[in-house]
Write a structure and sequence with these properties.
The protein is of the alpha/beta class. It contains 4 helices and 5 strands, in the order ββαβαβαβα.
Amino acid sequence: MGYSISWDNEEKTVVFQYYEKGGTKQDLYDLVRESAGMLNTFEHRVHLIIDQRNVRYLMNAADMAFLEENKPKNQGVVILIIEQNIETHKSMTQKIGRRAAPHAFSDTYFVASLDEARKILQEHHGVHYPSVVTETQE
């Protein structure tokens, strides 16, 4: 297993997904299933923070369709933590994804750190974190 997944706050309104070095496309599929299972246990909106700094794979149409089919109804925004040098590539993937899988590729942010992701969620989406949360989860 080339990933980890956990709740990122006590209120269970954010799921944190982390890809280990060498994460594979199979890990993507497994992570999507596991994440959907977590979100489907609640009615309230749940946001995702996905740390993709350790993976480099290209999504094809089948991957995008899989994301679309498995997107929970209560999924909120998706914040991708990426290396800044691949932001152009990720933006292009998002553009294609919005056409191929419009629900799975809506409401996405790109950031450089977990702290930045949490700040967006706190300031724009009403998420609460304890004041001592740091990037120690990475």
